[in-house]
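for the recovery benchmark. tokens below, seq after
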């Protein structure tokens, strides 16, 4: 019987500690707050009991006594209890009170520190809280001072004299009072101030000001909690050091509609560039478990997608064969992703057209002598390539190894996609199935990014003109086009 007081970090999932992740995965019960990151709980067990003890309906906090009682009850029942808090549990998190309650009840506990917002938000804003010759001390201060409660009163003259950086938690509503008191206490009205809202989260925004201007600036910008306010010379450094907010896709919400199994690399690249990714997989692939014909006699094998490559090798394996069955055959991959997938299975494609579309493949094959070709693809694939080859007198076998079917999208995911700045479409089927899921039409509102001509044609069939079409017609090309679209 041990209770764990665990910090979840400031929001970005990557800033959750290994120990926190381990305990979240093990917990029977998790008592959590509002300010933990949206997916901090995604690693919890499916049968874990998750209890919210933050603000109720955006209003009053669950009273601390009630939280303590819950904590003790669950710990006494012998279950593994994790008390998960935003940032660090002992920094303005009332973790100390909970530890005292556990100690008084004789329940052993462990504390797992987290990265506190007062360090993480400045770091993500490009603001070093200490800096040689600028600031050699940091104070964490609560800005949430209730004038009606004398016991919470801060010693403002002492804070004003503090020889270093002041980091205020809470209190975005009291910026004017904070600034006035510091200036009254002797800080220069020109002293830099930085407010970092939603630090480390996709909507992070930094507002720079001085003590003289901060109240007005914050009101103009509509600054809202949660935010960290930093006062001191270092608060001007984001002008030079901002990195997260300087990313090309920062603040841009991009929906990715491709199959979950294939969305990873595209989503990761978009996130690296600062985008907030909405994963809305409109399709998934389903193996048809088709039988692979004898390959002897085919002098060309065309693979039209990464999934087709994996299915090809699965089909070989089902029939007791392996990569050696492709020995002696010329292998063509429709695009670089397909070539990569083939390489994973030990086969280097002989032909990869410069343009990753059927027309590019037709061109790339033009000069090659081919008598018999096997085309491995999805059931719903286009016929442009087999038709063109047959016209040349090639004997063509089209083998559908999988089909693309609709993936169920829940209402929340659809709403998030419809509220995005961009929806990316990486195949005609993503257009068709997203429209179907959304009640027959591609959502109005977001701009539409198409990976290539066939996808753009599908959008036009749905009465929509793509706002951009990638060139080259690859996921990387799509990302570049989004960056260039600004
Ligand atoms: N224990 C937490 C602090 C809880 S007090 C920690 O160590 O971070 C709540 C205050 O933390 C908020 O009012 C805000 O000032 C700050 N805060 C928490 N998460 C934040 C975030 N992602 N960005 C900016 N400030 C944040």
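predicted aa per position
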């Amino acid at each position: 019987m041990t209770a764990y007081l665990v910090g979840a970090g400031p929001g970005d999932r990557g800033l959750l500690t290994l120990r926190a992740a381990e305990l979240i995965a093990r917990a029977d019960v998790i008592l959590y707050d509002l300010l933990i990151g949206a997916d901090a709980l995604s690693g919890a067990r499916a049968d874990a009991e998750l209890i919210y003890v933050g603000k109720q309906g955006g209003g009053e906090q669950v009273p601390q006594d009630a939280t303590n009682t819950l904590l003790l009850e669950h710990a006494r029942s012998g279950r593994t209890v994790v008390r998960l808090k935003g940032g660090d549990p002992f920094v303005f998190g009332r973790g100390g009170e909970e530890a005292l309650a556990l100690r008084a009840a004789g329940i052993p506990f462990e504390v797992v520190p987290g990265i506190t917002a007062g360090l993480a938000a400045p770091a993500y804003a490009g603001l070093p809280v200490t800096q040689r010759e600028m600031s050699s001390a940091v104070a964490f201060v609560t800005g949430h001072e209730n004038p009606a409660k004398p016991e919470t009163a801060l010693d403002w003259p002492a804070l004003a004299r503090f020889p270093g950086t002041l980091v205020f938690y809470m209190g975005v509503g009291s910026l004017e009072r904070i600034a006035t008191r510091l200036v009254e206490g002797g800080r220069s009205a020109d002293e830099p101030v930085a407010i970092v809202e939603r630090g480390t989260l996709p909507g992070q925004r930094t507002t720079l000001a001085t003590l003289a201007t901060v109240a007005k600036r914050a009101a103009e910008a509509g600054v809202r909690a949660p935010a960290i306010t930093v006062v001191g010379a270092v608060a001007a450094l984001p002008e030079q050091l901002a990195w997260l907010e300087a990313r090309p896709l920062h603040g841009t919400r991009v929906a990715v509609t491709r199959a979950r199994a294939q969305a990873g690399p595209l989503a990761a690249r978009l996130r690296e560039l600062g985008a907030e990714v909405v994963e809305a997989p409109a399709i998934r692939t389903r193996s048809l478990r088709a039988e692979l014909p004898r390959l002897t006699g085919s002098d060309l094998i065309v693979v039209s997608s990464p999934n087709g490559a994996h299915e090809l090798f699965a089909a070989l394996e089902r029939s007791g064969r392996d990569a050696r069955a492709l020995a002696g055959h010329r292998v063509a991959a429709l695009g670089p992703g397909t070539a990569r997938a083939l390489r994973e299975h030990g086969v280097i494609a002989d032909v990869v057209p410069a343009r990753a579309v059927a027309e590019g493949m037709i061109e790339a094959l033009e000069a090659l002598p081919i008598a018999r070709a096997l085309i491995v693809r999805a059931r719903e694939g286009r016929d442009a390539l087999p038709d063109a080859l047959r016209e040349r007198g090639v004997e063509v076998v089209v083998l559908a190894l999988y089909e693309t079917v609709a993936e169920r999208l829940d209402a929340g995911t659809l709403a998030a996609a419809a509220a995005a700045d961009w929806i990316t479409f990486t195949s005609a089927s993503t257009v068709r199935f997203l429209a179907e899921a959304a009640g027959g039409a591609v959502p109005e509102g977001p701009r539409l990014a198409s990976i290539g001509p066939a996808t753009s044609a599908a959008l036009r069939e749905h009465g929509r003109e793509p706002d951009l079409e990638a060139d080259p017609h690859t996921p990387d090309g799509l990302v570049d086009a989004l960056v260039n679209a600004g």
